[in-house]
Write a structure and sequence with these properties.
Length: 433
């Protein structure tokens, strides 16, 4: 059923009665009615391959996840002040994926809440309030999260970095300050410099926070040794390191279950969000015993919904499905295949200036021959791929990076189908440089 008047009235209602800064994808918005594995189905019954949604980690409406949630919902849902096996099982299963040092978990309901709690923990542990964060990093929508998110305070409507936030230059080795050998060390020297500036003022960092692949900045992979050296600089001053795994975690990078493991570091606090609940609001903060002890200073941490039996049943099933369906292995193999094929595509279509990322967390950047960003082309690509039945999105400060982070059931067949249409779209005159 295609009823454009109906859609127009829904858009008008949204505009008038929903939050005025909510965005809507596409000029001709889509009304999605069903999800199925790697696909979304709109109100006309048209099926779209979803290349954007890393929240539906094990696939949209995965039957086992749905069943686990429904069954527990029919039995009991209440807060975590009663004993319940679901929260214990999820804690045990989740913690088994971490280095032994990370052995305490707090359950929350969103990535923002997870980072909000991590910020409180770092303040409690160190008694400090200065944070070092990444240029163009995003960590959530709460007050404290916005205050450490350069993507927001340096972007539209933002007012710049607050007094206690210190921003490290984005370690972009394609268009950034440094590239080539030792770029990681050079970028990390800025972290050491910021730490020193704090020490000179008689202050210390509470924490350094970063993703392991900087998503909102346009899928920027951290150069070798950056994280190792940055962590060392912060540890040396008695600060904590927080890994934000909200986007990249739970096997998505392929070689490892957590993104920070790509860099051989162990953070003090890890925040987990989107994928853990496969669309259900479930998130977590994992930390060391020492950090957890310091946070428990007598004030109770109560979270009405965090760790409830329904959320935990869902989280447990998500972890189980990742294992059963070998989705981390799939992210590695399919991701490598897709990255290789995209590199071939870049050789054929020079508008693709860079292909990057790990596993099923990839991106490709559109530039002209003078390395100027091509936002119009990137947005046209999203539009033309939509017309062919693919959901994609753009990202990065210049809006010229295409992100690829599909549900992890995305396989080689899906990749081939996508690549075929991408090739056809890129052949149009508009994309010639
Ligand atoms: N951290 C990162 C890296 C994110 O990408 C996001 C959401 N895009 C968040 C935190 C906040 O998560 P949520 O929207 O679930 O609050």
């Amino acid at each position: 059923r295609d009823n454009s008047e109906d859609l127009a009235s829904k858009v008008a209602f949204r505009k008038k009665h929903l939050g005025k800064s909510l965005s809507l994808s596409y000029k001709q918005p889509l009304e999605m009615l069903r999800g199925e594995g790697g696909f979304l189905i709109d109100h006309t019954g048209r099926k779209y391959m979803d290349l954007v949604n890393n929240v539906a980690h094990v696939g949209h409406e995965h039957p086992k996840v749905v069943k686990a949630g429904q069954a527990q919902m029919a039995m009991l849902n209440t807060n975590s002040r009663y004993l319940h096996d679901n929260i214990l099982e999820l804690s045990e299963n989740l913690l088994s994926t971490f280095p032994a040092k990370l052995s305490v978990v707090h359950f929350v309901n969103s990535g923002s809440e997870a980072n909000e709690l991590a910020i409180r923990m770092a303040k409690a542990y160190t008694g400090e309030k200065d944070f070092i964060s990444m240029e163009l990093g995003y960590h959530g929508n709460s007050n404290a999260c916005i205050d450490i998110s350069s993507y927001k305070f340096d972007g539209k409507g933002g007012k710049g970095a607050p007094e206690h936030t210190h921003v490290v230059p984005l370690p972009d080795t394609l268009r950034g300050k440094y590239c080539g050998a030792n770029a990681g060390e050079k970028y990390a020297s800025h972290v050491r410099e910021l730490v020193q500036q704090l020490l000179d003022k008689g202050r210390k960092p509470a924490a350094f926070i970063a993703e392991s692949i900087i998503s909102c900045a346009g899928q920027i992979e951290l150069p070798d040794n950056f994280l190792k050296e940055a962590y060392a600089a912060v540890f040396d001053a008695g600060g904590l390191c927080i890994a934000d795994e909200v986007q990249v975690g739970c096997g998505r990078v392929g070689t490892h279950f957590w993104g920070f493991e790509l860099h051989g570091v162990v953070p003090d606090i890890v925040t987990i969000g989107k994928p853990l609940g496969n669309g259900h609001p479930l998130a977590a903060v994992v930390c060391t015993q020492e950090v957890a002890e310091a946070f428990a200073n007598g004030m109770e941490y109560f979270n009405t919904f965090g760790g409830n039996p329904v959320s935990c049943a869902i989280g447990n099933t998500v972890l189980q499905v990742i294992k059963e369906e070998k989705l981390q292995e799939n992210a590695l193999h399919t991701g490598n295949f897709l990255k290789e094929e995209l590199n071939k595509m870049a050789a054929k279509h020079p508008v693709i200036a860079d292909v990057r990322g790990q596993g099923l967390f990839l991106g490709f950047e559109l530039l002209d021959r003078e390395k100027n960003p091509l936002a119009k082309q990137a947005n046209a690509l999203v539009q033309r791929m939509k017309e062919r039945g693919y959901l994609m999105s753009t990202e990065g400060p210049d809006d010229n990076v295409l992100k690829i982070k599909p549900p992890m059931s995305f396989n080689q067949e899906h990749a081939n189908q996508f690549l075929k249409d991408l090739d056809l779209v890129l052949t149009a005159d508009f994309f010639q440089i």
